[in-house]
Amino acid sequence: MRWFLLDASPDVRDQIATLPTARTTETRHVPIEGIVLTDAELDHTLGIELLREGRALHLYATASVFGTLERDSRVLPVTRAFACVDVTVLEPDGVPAPLRYRDGAPSGLSVQAFDVAGDPPRFASLNEPGHTVGLVVHDGATGGTCAFVPGCADLDDAVAARLSGADVALFDGTFFTDDEPQRFGLGDRTATQMGHAPIGGGGTLTRFAGLACRHKVYTHINNTNLVLLEDSLERRAVERAGVVVGRDGMTFQI
């Protein structure tokens, strides 16, 4: 099987180890055909460097994200020292970009980026449009769509419309309450100030639950979030609303 990644986290090797892939005798084989990025945050991009052993990577991201990876985190220069890195620039709300296999063949998938509320990474030297986006992946064969928004400070009308049109919506469930980062000693900023709208306390749950998509899933969940506990009040509130708490290994067919 051939795979595309949406963001590349520091534990990407462990994630890849769980994927069903075809056997190969190729040395240092990496079964990833391309990586689509939602931002330039370290927890979404450090995995790119770990995939350098594949010797050829194709990245899809906005010009703002590529600029930060080139100029500030230096992820791109470091990776290019070991591998050939091709890039496709995504224009937010622009024409969907076809996802191609490493050999150039069409995959039948396309991706479109759209702006979401949030801040650029704290290490970014510029605050440019397109620094944080959501993605809609479309399957040309089935017509199915998946929306992916791991970081979003406000589930506003525009983002809600994007999610409503998807068969599967994977949305930011990082924190349950706005003061959660402060209560757990993660810093002096609230969840919203960190670019993550909370689930509860007047957060995203009611609106997310009311969207028309077939599967609604909270993802990108921080280890301080009590929805991870199956017997917690927070978990029950989410499940009563008809929303799924994402877990490792979860699959959907669209």
Report on this structure.
- The chain has 254 residues and is α/β, with parallel strands linked by helices.
- The protein folds into two domains: 1-117, 4-Layer Sandwich (Metallo-beta-lactamase, Chain A); 144-245, no CATH class.
- It has eight helices and eleven strands.
- It has helices at 12-17, 42-50, 63-71, 75-80, 157-164, 180-183, 205-209, 233-240, and strands at residues 3-6, 32-36, 56-61, 84-89, 97-100, 106-115, 133-139, 145-149, 168-172, 215-219, 244-245.
- The chain has a seven-stranded mixed beta sheet with strand order 5-6-7-8-9-10-11, covered by helices on one side. A four-stranded parallel beta sheet has the order 1-2-3-4.
- Helix 2 links the parallel strand 2 and strand 3 (56-61).
- The longest helix is centred in the N-terminal third of the chain and has 9 residues, at 42-50.
- It is globular.
What name does CATH use for the topology of the largest domain?
A: Metallo-beta-lactamase, Chain A
What is the radius of gyration computed over CA atoms, rounded to a whole number of angstroms? Answer: 18 Å
The residue-averaged pLDDT reads 94
The rounded distance between the terminal residues' Cα atoms is 17 Å
Q: Describe the biggest sheet? A: 7 strands, mixed
CATH architecture of the largest domain: 4-Layer Sandwich
- Counting structural domains, the number is 2
The portion of residues forming beta strands comes to: 15-25%
What pattern of helices and strands is seen along the backbone? Answer: EHEHEHHEEEEEHEHHEHE
Helix content: 10-25%
Shape: globular
- Low-pLDDT stretches: none
Number of strands: 11
CATH class of the largest domain: Alpha Beta
CATH superfamily of the largest domain: Ribonuclease Z/Hydroxyacylglutathione hydrolase-like
Secondary structure category: alpha/beta
Task: Provide a count of the helices.
Answer: 8
